[in-house]
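Standup notes
- DV: blocked on the single-chain target, sequence here:
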Amino acid sequence: MSTEQPQEGGQKKPPIPTPAKRVPAYNIEKRGDRLYQAQALHKWFAISSLLLFVITVGMVMQDYMREWKRYQRDFTRLNIQNTQGDYISALGSIDRTKYNDLIKDYNAANAAQRQNSGAISQAEEQVAALNAQFIRVDQLYKTTKAQYDADKYAYDEAVAHKLPSEAKDKAKAEATQVKMDQYFLDREEINTKLQAAKDELTKLQNRSIEDRKQIMAMRTDLDRIGRQLNALNPGTLVTSIINAPMLDFLKPSLQIKQILLPNLFYDQPFKQISRADRCTTCHLGIDNAKFADEAQPFKTHPNMSLYLSSGSPHPMDKFGCTSCHGGLDRSTDFLTAGHTPRDKKQEEDWEFKYGWDPQAVLREYLETPMFSMPNVEAGCYKCHNSSTDVPKAAALDNGRELIKQFGCFGCHKLPGYEGIRKVGPDLSTVSGKLTQDWVKKWLANPKDFKSEARMPRFWYNTNNSGVQNGVDWDKRNPVEINAIVAYLWDESSKLAPKPLPAKNANGNAEHGKELVETRGCYGCHSVGPIEEVSNKTQVRRRHGYNLANQGSKVTANWIANWVQDPQQVWPDSKMPSLRLSDPEVADVAAYLSSLKNPEWEKKVPPPSDMATLDSVVFEFLRAGSTEAKAKADLAAMNGDQKNLYAGKQLITRYGCYACHNVPGFEKAQPIGTALTEAGSKLISQLDFGFLDIEHERSEWYSQKLHDPRIFDRGRVKKPDELLKMPNFTLSDKDVNSIVMVLTSMVKDKVPQEMKERPDPDVVEGRMLVAEKNCKGCHIVEGIGGDVRAAFKDNLQWPPNLNTQGQKTQPEFLRSFLKDPGAVKVRWWMDTRMPTFHFTEHQIAAIGKYFARLDKVDWGWIDTDVTTTSQSVAAGKQLFEQGQCSKCHPTTPGSSTPAAGSDRTGVAPNLTLAHDRLRPEWVTRWITGPGLIDPTTRMPDFFKVVDEKTGKRKTDYPQILGGDVDAQIRALRDYVFTLGGGKVKTSGN
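- DV (later): unblocked, structure below
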């Protein structure tokens, strides 16, 4: 039995274990108790320790050799070189002879001072002793004076109240005054001795002090640059220590630089992260004009006064870099930052220099790469999208203008294009303008009619040509075209377009050609291809339709009615009136109707294949019904009904109503994808199909614009599944401009303080200027004047409208815009300002726009000139001696200047000045015509002779004492008296 006793509760205690036998700790290796060999373990520990050390050293060196540190070291060396150059220049600017003489005098003075050190010490001791005496006596004088003031007050009180102490108080005050006067005399005597001692000391020291001041003045720039050089280059030892691995936490000269932008964010899942731009870590010379000629990354940012400096509209500390350029803000590596090459050559250079890989950079690392330099203006749009133009971004504005001309906003939702009229002509009256055969041939390929056609090609494209996926498109395309034309003619005939009145059919085509070329038609139109001009866009000359081959399109009578009164033919027409006479209208119509395309006229549109028509109709019927019902409905239709039904369905499919007014589609919705955030669309959301192109956003848009339907290549699709965007046959230049706009439309949230906040009057004015294509002829805000390229003679150039608000009186501008033909300001010009039939509100909007741009008052203004008869007389003398009348007519109603002038000296009639121009603008114009309009022929009579002071000279010093400002005012005053103008005169 067990000897264990049960515990309380009936449980037994556990048995007591037997103590383990102790084993002596020796001969462990022989006994084999371990699963490893200690010797081998030591070896592996040694190897792993060595590897860890090597890896740690490698990690430290990798960090020490990071790309941005190399750039900063290179920049420091470059900065030192430049500073050394500045030091040498500063050293060379010192007058060495004078400097050496000063050094000699200074040394001699110091030597003399050392020789006279005993006398100087004695003089200094004397000054110190006298100064101590002066302080002691001055204190006694002040104390006694205070006592005297008290005694004097007590005496005055006794006298006033006739106190018995009057005599005693008087004696006390007099005694105190004697002491005070004595202290005053003692102080003055000591002060005289002190000044003499100081003068003696100054004589002993003065020579060296004056020399030292002159030496320091000559060395100011030199010493400043020297301190800068010492700061840049404290020495190899110091630089090595503060930037050494593991010690660079002290105060390194190599460090990441960043601009914190708390108001700009990156959207991350469930969180917004503030931006911290580190671009200046490598772009170190970006805000220093000294590095303007250096290569990247040290090159100075262009136009710093506009984009970078603290006083610019885009200060770097508020806008940073990535808000405009794109890229990854926190990156300090060339690849991950998202740099984008400007062209293929730069891409090849980067592949060799940086190992640049477009796929890795743009897909793996970053969804928002930087804009390439040709497209950098795309970064402007998100802040400057409140108006139609960005005056400093001509390339971006060019793309926006193209989008407007091609009507992209008709199918796609695009910000900033709301409320614009459809770009295509009204098709509700097409039967009264064109023939069915012409429209059929036009739809097949508009560019067969004229190479500059704006209408895109819907048929015979990449995905609907030949036989594809069992569909014979060579048969189907004519069926679709004929069906659409049948529908349009049926609807148009119902509206019964009104017949146009008969016009003179015997015009002179040669004179008509001259009229088209000289009256200003080329401000909006062209005839045939536009000859490109280097560094000058002519996109606004495409505002109106190209006039090539008009004789093969419409009748001469239709052209005549259109030219004479476009609103009579189409009430919504944007074309203004050039106020042509009936003979001129006939001549222009004769010329335009002579422009023909004989090859086009010979073509015969193919008829519809009835079996193919049935398949098209059945396809649409089956889409919303059963197959049996679709077959029954098809069998119940005759040929005309099939065409009309198919035509309406095809117009719906292709979205023809987006550009044209099509009867029955007044409320139809656009069919294109919204592009409001096209620049932020994820690359993963773009279908690149089977095309071998870079997976990059701008590359996809570029391919889409070049050939919109090429992404169907290799796909098996039914006709209703195919891509539908038509082919505009855009040039590479136009594609790049439009892609820039698309990539500029990003979803980035920009704070209000960074956005452009233009004056509402400026916004409204810009919209009118854009709508009427004023920049096609005129330069406005420094942009435009496209028509100038069409004129060989610059005398025909429409005027530059810069400073127009400051130039023209509001009432004159109003009357001119109301009826431009009433007054001919530039009598020599054949080009003609058209009549736009502006409303009073539109005229006021344009006037306010120009006034706001120039920051002047608009409305009623006082244009009276207050002057003197002497000033007017002097102005007349200057006017005559300057022979101003050789260019300017000075007789009311005259259209020629004074005798002896020629056509190269033409200028506006000055008798209109008092009713047309603002006095302050005339003063500004006379002061410097070229500053307002660099292309003006008016000479600068008061040339600047000193650029620093702005001082001008006059050729007539005998008039008004040679006072240039007075002469300018005198000329202005006299001009305002011409033609009956009056000025307020006072005195002589």
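- Follow-up: The longest strand covers residues 259-268.
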